[in-house]
From TrEMBL:
The keyword Coiled coil applies. This is Zinc ribbon domain protein. InterPro entries: Oxidative_Scav/Glycosyltrans (IPR052376). The keyword Iron does not apply. Residues 40-74, 98-171 form a coiled coil. PANTHER family: PHOSPHOLIPASE C-BETA-2-RELATED, SCAVENGER RECEPTOR CLASS A MEMBER 3. Keywords: Coiled coil.
Length: 259
């Protein structure tokens, strides 16, 4: 390809249209993947979130079970104390000592009642946690299976298209180097502003591709002369004549077929 300074207007138009054909081909390849990469990413996030939730639930369950063990051990301690204070009551010398020991026994019994109530609440919490763990595991299994299938689907598509995409990305970069910065900036601006990514279009049946607005005959003659770079006044797209477009399409189709 000629250097930027040596390129004629026609060469610039051909280079721009070739770049458009290459970039459009890349767009087509990526459209085959569609939303799959985003779906895989979303599923990976969901699986990670569910895994974290499951880990926390299991940790909470372990802590609850540990708390129950601690409460049961405390109850055993209170029962030992009650037995001790009850035995001591047999050897008291006066009512004051007897009443003091009775209060200690009552206190230990209250502590046992409180611990038993807490154990009951903790056991109810265990059932809730186990149900949450079961539901989370089920959901995690479903999402993991779905993710596995989506990844396999994406990998199949990537295996079919990655080589071609990589080749075209290199070609796109190569063609961009041969286009002056001003035109490249305009190309990128137009391409990013239109839904179908077409910044350079040909004229067909008196209108630019994708447009219903007729281009004046005199303007069509100027476009066909390839003496200046003209844009569609309605869409802002760069225009090339149909003959040039057909020649470049045939050339590019041969390149695409060789990949």
């Amino acid at each position: 390809m000629a250097t930027t300074k040596e390129m004629s207007v026609e060469e610039k138009l051909r280079a721009l249209y070739d770049l458009q054909l290459i970039d459009s081909r890349i767009d087509e390849i990526r459209s085959v993947r569609g939303e799959l990469p985003l779906e895989v990413e979303d599923l990976e996030d969901e699986v990670a979130g569910l895994t974290t939730r499951l880990d926390k639930l299991q940790m909470d369950l372990a802590q609850i079970e540990e708390s129950i063990k601690s409460k049961k051990a405390a109850i055993e301690g209170h029962q030992v104390s009650i037995k001790k204070y009850t035995e001591q009551q047999k050897d008291v010398r006066n009512n004051r000592e007897f009443n003091a020991l009775t209060k200690e026994v009552e206190y230990q019994e209250l502590e046992i009642q409180l611990a038993e109530k807490q154990i009951k609440e903790l056991k109810a919490s265990i059932e809730f946690k186990k149900e949450s763990i079961s539901q989370t595991k089920e959901k995690l299994d479903q999402k993991s299976t779905h993710l596995k299938h989506k990844k396999a689907e994406l990998n199949d598509i990537m295996a079919e298209t990655q080589k071609e995409e990589n080749f075209l990305m290199e070609k796109s970069a190569e063609y961009r180097q041969g286009i002056e910065a001003r035109l490249l900036t305009a190309y990128d601006r137009i391409r990013n502003s239109v839904r179908n990514g077409l910044a350079v279009v040909s004229i067909e049946r008196g209108a630019s591709v994708g447009s219903f607005f007729t281009i004046p005959p005199q303007t069509q003659v100027e476009i066909a002369s390839r003496k200046k770079i003209l844009t569609d006044e309605h869409s802002g797209r760069i225009l090339v004549d149909n003959v040039l477009a057909q020649e470049e399409r045939e050339k590019m189709e041969q390149m695409f077929a060789s990949i």
